[in-house]
Write a structure and sequence with these properties.
By secondary structure, the protein is α/β, with parallel strands linked by helices. The protein is built from 15 helices and 29 strands. A 6-stranded mixed sheet has the order 6-5-4-1-17-18, with helices on one face. A 6-stranded mixed sheet has the order 8-9-11-14-16-15, with helices on one face. It has a 5-stranded mixed sheet with strand order 23-20-27-22-28. A hairpin with a 2-residue loop joins strand 15 (about 285-290) and strand 16 (about 295-300). The longest helix has 20 residues, at about 5-20. Mean pLDDT is about 95; it is low at about 15-25.
Length: about 550
């Protein structure tokens, strides 16, 4: 038995033992009601186990960590069933980002496979996350209600009838109204005790999706939105309240620990009405089990690698939560594969294979998305070069510079043993399918855009830039003065603040996404191919491709 299997078996035995005890006959009327909540977050369409696996404490030496295989809808469905067996009251919920930024198998079909997978798995409720809005309000409503995609039509192996679970959106309002896009909460009753589940996304969603996708929507304060619902819930006789929120924090301990947690979720929980009992969080792709302000707060990593099992005791008299404990459980590959999930995946793979398996070319080593001290990554450089190559011809845009946002690069560009790369690999790195847009900007406007990389100085978004363009920055300088204007050059010639340059961006950036509002000044736009198609073409034309030197951006503070 592998080390992970031993850890998993021990955790599962403990969980199932608790389940067996909970299932024993209840003889006293005042015995509490047992409820098991199974939760996930940030699945991101990972129907198959993600290549990244999950990092856990090394069973042989807890002072160290190790990466182990984990995830996949087939194994997750089996774990959900195992953790539900023997439990009289169970509900399966999610804290957002089930879809969006997905691998090829789900994204090619606009995440319909993931919605179907979660429905077959028995998911009851999900908060909306920021990625649920990637393709806008109308597309998210289609995810809930079903129907063919308005542009691509019906591509899947069977009609898409929409989610069998319900999305919740307590803080997302139709602009100018007090109407939320989905219900703010849903009440489920367990042995006559009502439990409310409130679902919502982070208030900053509008700043991390495209302006077009955010159009017509308002994303309001998280704690205020939750607290406003408490009187209504109490009027309905609800005392037990669970929040599913797509916002989180950064822990310093293991996946079932919380020696230190920082980030937005801490202040949000402290601002919540005392009636809120449990908070299931997400967004930061972290795993933790914490107590904040005397409340249980959990998060289950990302990509379906963990399921959080939360055991709750409900008082039959007060109808409130007496206690709540949680354990994050690895979705281990030794679990049996669920037949319904296998059939779903195979049906979509059959349709997707001819496109997914197209060879793009070869690379000499994995092209990493990890940035250096200046924020520049190997894959970022390659993607920017690919976009410049695709749009440099006069009839394609006449671009002399290309830039892309780091948040749009989701994984390393994987390399097989023979060096080959397929379209599916390319797509996994750039799953948003943004169209390239070439615009005219002055040198001064380019500098203004670069300065906006530090809108959040603690977590700057360093744009990836094409070869020939370079500059230096000093993060210690005041806002608006971090980029050294004199260092900005194009092919060795200083950038002229008054001169015009043709710059290629993806349409997300061109519309001011990620807070880069300076790009909205771009003139004479010419829209071209999708970003993944540009990278695919670049690999075909330049194979075998090796990593370029990361020398385009200089951090003067290093």
């Amino acid at each position: 038995m592998s080390r992970l299997s031993r850890v998993f078996a021990a955790c599962l035995l403990a969980a199932l033992s608790a389940a067996a005890l909970a299932a024993l006959p209840v003889h006293a009327e005042d015995e509490p009601v047992s409820l098991r909540i199974l939760a996930i977050n940030d699945f991101h369409g990972n129907l198959k186990p993600p290549a990244s696996g999950i990092r856990i404490a090394d069973p042989a030496d807890p002072t160290k960590s190790t990466v182990v295989p984990a995830g996949g809808a087939e194994h997750m469905a089996s774990l959900i069933k195992l953790l539900s067996d023997g439990q009289p009251n169970t509900i399966f919920v999610a804290a957002g980002d089930l879809i969006g930024a997905s691998p090829f198998l789900s994204a090619m079909f606009h995440d319909e496979p993931t919605i179907q997978s979660m429905s077959k798995m028995g998911l009851a409720l999900s908060a909306v996350g920021n990625h649920e809005f990637d393709e806008g309000k109308a597309e998210l409503l289609r995810m809930q209600n079903g129907g063919c995609h308005p542009t691509d039509g019906c591509r899947g192996p069977e009609p898409f009838t929409g989610a069998q679970f319900h999305y919740l959106a307590a803080s997302t309002f139709i602009a100018g109204t007090d109407k939320t896009i989905f219900p703010p909460y849903e009440i489920h009753t367990f042995e006559d005790i009502p439990v409310a589940f409130i679902g919502l996304t982070l208030k900053g969603t509008a700043g991390i999706i495209s302006p077009a996708s955010a159009a017509g929507l308002e994303f309001r304060n998280e704690a205020e939105s939750i607290n406003a619902l408490i009187p209504e819930l109490k009027a309905k006789g609800v005392q037990a309240i669970v929040v599913l929120i797509h916002e989180g924090g950064w822990p310093s301990g293991g996946m079932n620990e919380c020696p230190g947690l920082s980030g937005p979720i801490v202040d949000i929980v402290k601002d919540l009405d005392s009636a809120v009992d449990i908070v299931i969080s997400g967004h930061t792709h972290q795993a933790y089990v914490c107590t904040i302000d005397k409340r249980l707060v959990t998060s289950g990593d990302k990509f379906g690698t963990l399921v959080t099992a939360i055991d709750v005791k409900l008082d039959r008299t007060t109808r409130d939560v007496i206690s709540a404990t949680a354990t994050n459980m690895v979705v281990d590959g030794s679990l049996p594969k669920d037949g319904a999930q296998t059939a779903l995946i195979e049906a979509y793979e059959k349709v997707a294979a001819p496109i997914a398996n197209r060879p793009a070319g070869t690379i000499t080593q994995v092209l990493s998305r990890l940035p250096n001290a200046a924020g520049e990554s190997v894959l970022g450089d390659v993607i920017a070069d690919a976009q410049l190559a695709m749009t440099s011809a006069a009839d394609k845009g006449g671009a002399v510079i290309a830039m892309t946002n780091p948040g749009g690069i989701r994984t390393d560009l994987a390399r097989r043993d023979d060096g080959t790369v397929t379209f599916a690999d390319v797509f996994a790195s750039q799953p948003f399918r943004n169209q390239l847009t070439t615009v005219t900007l002055t040198g001064a406007e380019i500098k203004a855009a670069l300065e906006q990389q530090w809108l959040d100085p603690a977590r700057p978004r360093i744009l990836q830039i094409s070869r020939g363009f370079s500059y230096a920055f000093d993060p210690k300088q005041p806002a608006g003065s971090r980029v050294d204007a004199a260092s900005m050059t194009l092919n060795g010639t200083a950038i002229d603040p008054a001169a015009s340059y043709r710059v290629t961006l993806n349409n997300y950036l061109a519309l001011g996404g990620d807070g880069f509002t300076a790009f909205k000044s771009g003139r004479d736009p010419l829209t071209g191919v999708y970003d993944d198609e540009a990278l695919f073409a670049y690999l075909k034309a330049n194979s075998p491709l090796g990593p370029p030197p990361r020398d385009r951006i200089v951090n003067k503070a290093q």
